[in-house]
Amino acid sequence: MAFCPHCGKQISNDARFCPSCGATVTAAGPGTAGAPPPPPGSPPTAPLAQPPVGAPPAHVPGVVPPPPRKQKMRSGWKIALVIILAVVLVIGAVVAVLAVFVFKAVKAPVDVTNKYIEAVNNGDAQEAWSLLHPDSRFRREYNAGSFEQELVKPSVNKLDTWNAHEVNVSGDRASVKVDMKFTNGNGQEFTFELRKNGGDWLIYDYY
User: Fold this and answer.
1) Which terminus of the chain has a lower count of CB atoms within 10 Å, N or C?
2) pLDDT exceeds 70 at position 46
3) Left, alpha or beta for 115 (phi > 0: left; psi -120 to 50: alpha)?
């Protein structure tokens, strides 16, 4: 037996029209029976759910799913990171250059002061004389001979230690404060004033 696909009534296998509703039907053929239609009022069969667009494929038993894709860093973040690194490198280079410049600017007057003190303490009047600025009071008040006799020789080996502890540089002038400890146990602070002559620092005065 077969069933009308329109009204669901039972009809014969070779019927071409439904005797109940008059709808045209197709014969199912001998030995075959169509599946009965759903009873009137039953909810329609829901289609199989399809995965949303872009969703990962469902896992099939026995098949190893591929590893999840790693999210790539956006190009904007890469550019920002490169810019930040470049700025940090530039700032580091500028700081290094400034540090070297400041170190050299402060170190040069101290070196000249130490050389002068050491030359006088060792009795090397010629070396000490060469470290005096042409406009210094020593060059104005003494010549090389009187400078050695009156200033250098009385000061030979009178110092035990000395330490330059404060330096100020302003343009072509500088001052260096030096703590001196003498062999007799006394101590005193001297301020050395230096000026540039050409590109060299030279002793201008001290007190």
Assistant:
1) C
2) no
3) alpha
